[in-house]
Amino acid sequence: MMGALMRPPTRRRGGPSLMRMLLPLVLFAVSTTIVFAAVHGRDPEDHDVPVLERLRPAWIVAQFSDATPEIMLLLVLMMGGVYATLHIGLRPLRHLSLLAGDIAPATIEARLPVEAAPREVAPLVEAFNAALDRLEVGLRAQRDFSANAAHELRTPLATLQAQVESLLEPDERRAASEEFERLGRLIAQLLALAEAEGGAPGTNTRFDLVALSRDVASDMAGFILSGGRSIGFDSAVVTMMVDGHSGLVETALRNLLENAVRHTPAGAEILVAIDAEGVACVSDDGPGVPAAIRDRVFERFSRGDPCGPGAGLGLSIVRQIMERHDGQARLAASARGACFELDFRPRDRRDDHSLAPARPPSSRIAM
């Protein structure tokens, strides 16, 4: 233990170790004790020796040369006591750090328990909670503004669309309608983003992921088939119960399907699949995601086609929804096309999961 403490400190996380900071104090305490004992003398005959003589290092070494094992034992016991005290005393801080690590935008209302912190650290915990209070106020104001603005824009946009289309010639009306549809999608995405980031409390329920995925694929089948693409559904299990907000998960699946339609040519096949562990996958056999944007595909306003109709919010909303469900949205490895996975499993059960077809193609349900 002494050798490990004497090695040069390496800063991995935070500042120097408390053990390394307290080691000089322990050595100073032991040295002071030895010097004090040497000055006062161990035997009555030593009192006749001048004090300055008793302070010489040679005198001290001669006096305590036969007590070296006891001194080393005292040093080890003191360091062991310091280590045990720090280990036990810092245990509440380790617990608080775990609680702080779980605080995210979706759980911004959570606070650290001040009563669980040592008295000396309680002011720091209170200041941290106060900072969270300020952040929560700003975050909720931002969410409310986005939701209210998007909601208030719906009615005037619909009115403006009707007025403009009534004044345009038939050949110009189609281009205007496409622009209004694009604005409508953007407003809907802003509303979905505000709901995914904030979410109403008490809306979580237990729902069947298989049934929900099948219904979403069925509802969007007409839209997908009208664009010249095909869609299928496959599941390795009959039911898969998940705790969460079914409406938000439906939004995530719809965004993935719309993303697949937007980035695949006519004739492409889109598949919604659920594996035996409850991982949902929306895959296609299109050109796939460009390597240049694979690492930032879930970032806001990140678009594979800068000139495309999307606003770059769809996949960001998918990630926000999965984070609210303590899940993970990821782009999985695929031999062809793109494969986006929604993993609802606990964190300790996740891995670099790559969804393979759960059944042969003949078992798929064509929509």
- Strand ordering within the main sheet: 6-7-5-4-2-8
Radius of gyration: 33 Å
Fraction of residues in H or I helices:
40-55%
What's the pLDDT, averaged over the residues? 77
Broad CATH class of the largest domain:
Alpha Beta
Structural class: alpha+beta
- Superfamily (CATH H level) name of the largest domain: Histidine kinase-like ATPase, C-terminal domain
SS elements, strand count: 8
How would you describe the overall organization of this protein?
By secondary structure, this protein is α+β, with helices and mostly antiparallel strands. It has three domains: about 1-90, no CATH class; about 110-200, Helix Hairpins (Orthogonal Bundle); about 205-365, 2-Layer Sandwich (Heat Shock Protein 90), CATH 3.30.565.10. It is about 50% helix and about 10% strand. It is built from twelve helices and eight strands. It has helices at about 1-5, 20-40, 50-55, 55-65, 70-90, 90-100, 120-165, 170-195, 210-220, 220-225, 245-260, 315-325, and strands at about 205-210, 230-235, 240-245, 270-275, 280-285, 330, 340-345, 365. Helix 8 (about 170-195) packs parallel to helix 12. The longest helix is centred in the middle third of the chain and has 46 residues, at about 120-165. The protein starts with a helix and ends with a strand. Mean pLDDT is about 75; it is low at about 1-10 and about 355-360.
